[in-house]
Amino acid sequence: MTEKAPWVTFRPELKVLDCTVRDGGLVNNSKFSDEFVRAVYDSCVQAGIDYMEIGYLNSPRLFPASDYGPWRRCDEEDLRRVVGDHDSAATGLKLAVMADAGKSDWKTQILPASESVLDVVRVACYVHQIPEAVDMIQFAHEQGYETAVNLMAISIVQEIEIEQALEVFATTPASTVNIVDSFGALYREQVDHLVKMYMAALEGTGKHVGIHAHNNQQLAYANTIEAIILGANRADASMAGIGRGAGNCAMELLLGFLRNPKFKLRPVLQLLQDHMLQLREEIEWGPSVPYNITGQFNRHPREAIQFRAGETPDDYVKFYDQTVSDI
Amino acid sequence: MTEKAPWVTFRPELKVLDCTVRDGGLVNNSKFSDEFVRAVYDSCVQAGIDYMEIGYLNSPRLFPASDYGPWRRCDEEDLRRVVGDHDSAATGLKLAVMADAGKSDWKTQILPASESVLDVVRVACYVHQIPEAVDMIQFAHEQGYETAVNLMAISIVQEIEIEQALEVFATTPASTVNIVDSFGALYREQVDHLVKMYMAALEGTGKHVGIHAHNNQQLAYANTIEAIILGANRADASMAGIGRGAGNCAMELLLGFLRNPKFKLRPVLQLLQDHMLQLREEIEWGPSVPYNITGQFNRHPREAIQFRAGETPDDYVKFYDQTVSDI
What we know:
2 copies of one chain form a homodimer.
Chain A: E1 15-18, H1 20-24, H2 34-47, E2 51-56, H3 76-83, H4 88-91, E3 94-100, H5 106-109, E4 120-125, H6 130-142, E5 146-151, H7 159-169, E6 176-180, H8 188-202, E7 208-212, H9 220-229, E8 234-237, H10 251-257, H11 266-282, H12 289-296, H13 302-308, H14 316-326
Parallel strand pairs in A: 1-2, 1-8, 2-3, 3-4, 4-5, 5-6, 6-7, 7-8
Helix pairs in contact in A: 2-11, 8-9, 12-13, 12-14
């Protein structure tokens, strides 16, 4: 199909996931107020967003309530305090959590779906954790959830390993396999290469390819729409782009691009001015030069995060020299 | 030519233009200190940047010294006070000015090249000013300058008009024709369409296609590298992305992408921390929600600029409603 101007139309099967509370929780140890989480939830419902990832389903041993807010563990009582008896059919919104391989007590934390307000479990793993991830996907599926998988940090994974991982994921019940640019290091041509690889590997399985981009080089939005253009049917975004380090694709940009009239930008803008501006006064996220540099060098952003929190957050040359000498 | 991973190589003919002082001058009426302009100049030389656009060659009648800094008019004495007897062969840097059709007294302002430190005149015009632009290009060429042309606001120009303009520009001495996304409204597929159109129209003329992007939707950098990928050999960027409204493609991002070892990122980072951080305290530029919205609606950013300068710069819903009701 060669269309003259495909950007004026839309694909009904394209679905959007809000990861504000989940990924944003990496900035503030998931210490969001109930009021804030509820406001995000209401905004997602009003905006026609398909999924809201409300936090991590990770272990209370590793992430105790003394140090982390409830959205790192997502106990059922915490969820219900905010979203009540959430009904995905009535609201059009599915509630998701992320369970990290190696960090989740998933056998006890994933309740039967009939006992939970949650609809979806997304499993995140690094390339050395694929066997556990497969077990987690299978278990969550058997408990009655829609499942998805995020293979993280793929910009430092060998291509044959990604191909092997995709072969494995193709045999699981996961409905979606997400391309995750954890380091915000990918350029458009690399996104193209990966989207084509993921789509080819999953062809005929009925599974969707998704995209989760980071904004280290101010390319999160561009790479997200690039993946969409090439056929990715799942896209992650967050309000004001909140997320670890340089943050994610901004929901207000993504919804402005999508042409499906079910998506409404106005409720998102309302959330930005009512809540995100205040949050920006309290915590930092978004692209800055140190994140540009870790993205350019294809490195984990943790050094940039530390540098931004240190004594000389704007001594860019120092950070550059330190990075150059360290590779 | 099908390359496996073209992003690890480079095209020697790709040249970068710094428009910090020229486009940034639209934020502060071109009131940059001599010290600042000299620092940008030094940074460009050290970073291996090919062109520095040092200001506008526009009329002192329209832009008097009482209201505008010297970089709006670029009198030879002002230029020489900062760059001395600038030598492009010795520094590797060509000095450019922009002359706006309708705003420049070009017949008197463009001196013979032998009497000026300037190397390049870029002519900017809207679609209704093409005949004057052609005269300006011809005159500047005859005075001994390299010339280029920027047809502005093309996201609201009819395609047959662009095609006609390109036919005309192909007959001029202009060495470069720039794709100018004045409204920051273009998406990747539109950039592709335009780059292909410009390249086809100029094929065989020896002219280059350039890209001048704006960051209203945080796509300036992405669209710039997209144009480069498709063959554009001239790219505009500015330090910290300074420029009218949402600003331009950030030089620190562009140089991080380019693989030609002649480009050095470090001098740019030094300028950012020594000068651009302070400037950010004094004047505002860069993407924010009102610019996102004018970009999404393919409108001139002037309303967003006014809104950001007004009483309620962060009342995004108000600006959205105002924009929606006004179209």
